[in-house]
Amino acid sequence: MKKHQDYFLGLDLGTGSVGWCVTDTEYRILKANRKRTIGTVLFSTAETAKERRTLRCARRRLRRQKERLRCLQELFREEIEKVDPGFFFRLQESPYVVEEKQNPDGSRAELPYALFVDKDYTDKEFHAQYPTIYHLRKELMDNPLPHDARLVYLAAEHIIKHRGHFLSSISAEGKEASFEDLLSQFLQLWNEYMDHTLTLLEEEKGKLKEPLLDAGMTKSGKKTAIIRLLGTKEPQLKEMAALLTGASASIEKLFDKEEYKNLEENKIQFDAPSYEEKEEYYREALGDDFEIIARARAIYNWCALSRILKNNPGGRISDARVEDYERHRTDLQLLKKLLRENFPKETQERILKVSEKGLANYPAYIGMTKKNGKKAPVVERCSKEDFYKLLDKEILKNLGDSEEKAYIEQQIRLGGFLPKQKGNGNSVVPYQLHEKELKLILKNAEGYLPFLKEKDESGYTVSEKILQLLTFRIPYYVGPLYGGGGEHSYAWVKRLEDGKVYPWNFEQKIDVEKSAEEFIRRAVSTCSWLKNEKVLPAGSLLFEKFKVLNELNNVRIYGERLEVDIKQRIYQELFCRHLRITKKRLIQYLKKEGIYAKVEPEDISGLDENFQS
Predict the structure, then answer these.
(1) pLDDT (mean) for 39-56
(2) Over the range 359-381, which residues count as b (16 or more CB within 10 Å of their CB) and which as e?
């Protein structure tokens, strides 16, 4: 390479490499120090902060859950220590094996119990009396007679620890957004976004609810019934029907967008075990289109919750879970009876005992087995679907026709054979239903535990504080409650007073207004071109208006630009009233308003097929 020689430098910038090449003006690769001036520099690909953010949010959520439980313990501590000083210490030691458990004085614990060590009442008697925590909750709601304060604490702890989601409009008194309201909101949004619109009469909306609530229909049967009711076989509407029933739906076909074809997750299914984990991905990948998914999920959750509470008019989760427990027990007795009467011992053990090969059998399904007469967790778990396949292959296909066989086949088809306490159905339960049960428990408990009605300087009773532990959420714009700076650089909270923050003194300790201002200030970036100038948020009304008018500047009708007053009319009367504008809708508006009475699609250029405002 000669001095003062003209040359070109070409760069190929990638996420994990930079390719480079130096040529002369005739595009011949030059040499420097007898080496060709071309090459690649590799480096580690930059990663987003998503994984770090996800883990941080999980830690924060668990920290807050533990803090709620610590507050609950403090509210019960004085009363419980009157009868059992070591109760909370045993709870703290409960995760450890017996050999590692200690007594409060530091000596080795000899009893393996985690809850009760009374002379005539231990964990054995407790679990015999209350096989599940829902049996205890039901007992405390239905029976106003005096109960041990430790039992009331255990029920309250379970409710606060597993308090449900905060997405529903249902109230603790049972008032809830109706199916028709949710469906109307969904259809309104659907008709704004989609090409194939839907108009349903009120009686048709009621008919649409019937298959979604029918526990005796399979998902495919529900989907067929909805498509038949809609009277159409349009791919978009078929995918919509699948989405509402909890079946798998194609995102590409649902939105009729080619760009969704190559999504990493191009299928969506509400009742899939992994949906909760994937929801954030769908939200980011679909952008504004995710609102359709969110409205559909609200309908699905409403129907799923209604099916859970179908036989429990009081709307109590505990009643439904106790019923599931009893049904699981009778189903298991039936399964054991069929195995004992029709199959050899080898088959019985293959279905009912842990297999070293990780077979999808009953212990793997429930996640528990017995070893040397003691319960032990199963490491290799299996899904409900895999367990049902095993039953079909090993048992049902080798049995003759009978009522028992028909029952099992029907329940497997509906997904209701051997129901478990924990499953995907728990994610649809709103916190208001747990609140309803906690209020009933505390109301009864106040009759025999007077401390629950005592008030302190805060002006709240202990019962009211317990309810606030369940219902209170830190506003998102306040964020973490620890001070900012250092390792807590993600916090921006502004305090009014120092000291521990509880739900009942939140407004005394936290300056909510200033914290909200700081939240907005941190969210606003500075311009990369104009130093120290603030930028408009991408979702602000002013910037949205700029984007719309900027898009309309490119539109040509009959080869001519739109006049200013026409652009303003289109913006005010079309974009300000609808979520999604297509070329078809624009043409309809122009014809209806008499602006361009004979305009056709081929007469318009410069406008994307559709975009949102």
Answers:
(1) 83
(2) bbbbbbbbeebeeeeeeeebeee
